[in-house]
Design brief:
By secondary structure, the chain is α+β, with helices and mostly antiparallel strands. It contains 4 helices and 7 strands. It has helices at residues 15-26, 33-40, 87-101, 116-124, and strands at 6-9, 46-52, 58-67, 70-78, 106-112, 128-137, 142-149. A 7-stranded mixed sheet has the order 1-2-3-4-5-7-6, sandwiched between helices. Strand 6 and strand 7 (142-149) form a beta hairpin. The longest helix has 15 residues, at 87-101. The chain is globular. It starts with 5 loop residues before the first strand and ends in a 7-residue tail after the last strand. The model has no long low-confidence stretch (mean pLDDT 93).
Length: 156
């Protein structure tokens, strides 16, 4: 990843730009701005990060929910112009680290079964497919793979 990229906590003033990128990337299945507000309202169990370029431009974002030993990736998104440069992996590694620091021993996520680049990213980082949720993503009746990383070991 480019060393000019900076990760920082997502704040309320990021929601408009995050939501715009969310709509660009996910269209009909995009989260609403209210969903992001709701997630940010739970700092005890949610951690959201944004990735910024040198000019402060939004390159991506990610979030994780941690409750006791269980953590769940809520979202990872990378702007089209920043894809293919390792930013998704950097965001995922940051979520793993935050979940571990919060006491989680396993990390779950759902990924569209037709999203080969995301599945490859998760497999490269040690996630295993443990279940399929049929017709999870609507509209479109797209299955979700449930994937898990366990145990959460320190990054080398």
């Amino acid at each position: 990843m480019n060393e000019d990229v900076r990760l920082r906590p997502m704040r309320w003033w990021d929601v408009a730009a995050v939501h715009a990128l969310e709509q660009t990337l996910f269209g009909a299945t995009a989260w609403t701005a209210e969903a992001f507000w709701s997630e940010l309202a739970h700092p005890d169990t949610r951690t959201y990060l944004v990735a910024e370029g040198p000019a402060g431009d939004l390159l991506g974002y990610a979030g994780v929910m941690t409750v006791s030993a269980d953590a769940d990736v809520q979202t990872i998104a990378v702007a089209p112009a920043a894809q293919g440069r390792g930013l998704g992996g950097t965001l995922l590694e940051a979520l793993v680290e935050r979940a571990r620091a919060a006491g989680a021993t396993s990390l779950l996520l759902e990924v569209r079964a037709d999203n080969a680049p995301a599945i490859a990213l998760y497999e490269r980082h040690g996630f295993d497919r443990i279940a399929v949720r049929r017709r999870y993503y609507q509209p479109g009746d797209i299955d979700a793979w449930v994937m898990r990383l366990r145990p959460l070991l320190p990054l080398v």
